[in-house]
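Reopening this one. Same input as before:
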Amino acid sequence: MKILLLSFFFLFCFNSLCSFDPDRRVTETVRNKLSSPLSQNLMEYTTKLGDGRTVLLTSTVMSFGDEKMRRCGELSMASFAVSGILTVGIKYAVNRQRPNGGTSSFPSGHTSTAFSWAAVVSSEYPQYSIPVFAVAGLVGVSRIALDKHWTSDVIAGAVIGYFSGLFIEKISCWITDY
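Same output, byte for byte:
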């Protein structure tokens, strides 16, 4: 519980620090580097990998696999739920403006979803840690490139998602029969 509270404290402090000029400069640099039509099309596709529906579908399909894959799918769904509740709660509490003018920017929901799934999959299948976290990282970059989030939003989403996955893995013996 202390780790979770410290994480929230870190996120709010980090958001305060990064809401100044360095956050804007990094965000603008990423957007400018990925502004070509090909990059934008790739980012549109990549961002969908962090959509809750994609993760729920993937987790559901995994639930029909062997015992280990079923466990991974079920834990992924639980991790998605935890990260979603935390992310939405923080979004409404902070209500930060998006770079494109929208609302509820902090933290990035797509990124927290992607990292919550990656944390569980990498825990259950360590041999896939690098690819699943690379995909989760690309989801975060896509949110910046598409002008949906600031860099600090994405970092906060990654932290929330990662720790949600770790939390579910740690308490999995209490929520499942494993």
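So the earlier flakiness isn't reproducible anymore. For the record, Helices lie at 2-18, 21-33, 37-48, 52-62, 67-94, 109-124, 129-145, 151-175.
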